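User: Working on a comparison across species. This one is Large ribosomal subunit protein mL40 from Seriola lalandi dorsalis. Can you predict its structure so I can line it up against the others?
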Amino acid sequence: MSGALSRCLCRVMARQTVPSSFLSGEHQHAVTVSPWFAPVMTLKTSAPLRAEPKKKKKVDPRREQVMKDRLRKKLRKLQKVPPEYIPIEDFVTPVSCMDETRQRSRPRLSFDESDGRALLLKEWSLYKQKQHMDEMKAVEVALEAQREALDELKLESEELYQAALKPDPLLFPFSHEGPAYTPPNSTYEAPDGKYNDITKVYTQ
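Assistant: Here's the predicted structure for Large ribosomal subunit protein mL40 from Seriola lalandi dorsalis:
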């Protein structure tokens, strides 16, 4: 198709050429092209497109209205249903743990072992009682000495007495580790921290 069109244009352009006059003894031919035609090199052809615009589907207005009504009804139903709260499993005791028959059997100790444990508990109780009494006595002695020192200071100078009653800001921040029931185990190896995540995912 494009080749036939090019040949036809070449024939038409060849007919439009005219010879010029002889100038200064030289035979010159000037080719004049009609302004209605363009050179062959400037022509560009493209493949034919056999397509047509897509036709719009005709939508029935009644059917469209019915679909909108259905969506409105669904939205109303969703608004009436209250939102479901995600349960906190940490606050719910499993049923398996509420079974009264699920009890751990206590190991049976011999008479010597049970007697030794009872004596050890008594000695430990006496030791802690003596330690508590010594601490309370030391606190009472310190408070009594402080009271006497403040009374003597008040007699010497009222300004120094008032300054001594003010809290000492250098005592804070105060950090202290409480007593432990057992001493730390130096040979204890901490676990790597691997665990299986069994958290349930709830979707609404």
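For your comparison, note: The radius of gyration is 54 Å.

User: Helpful, thanks.
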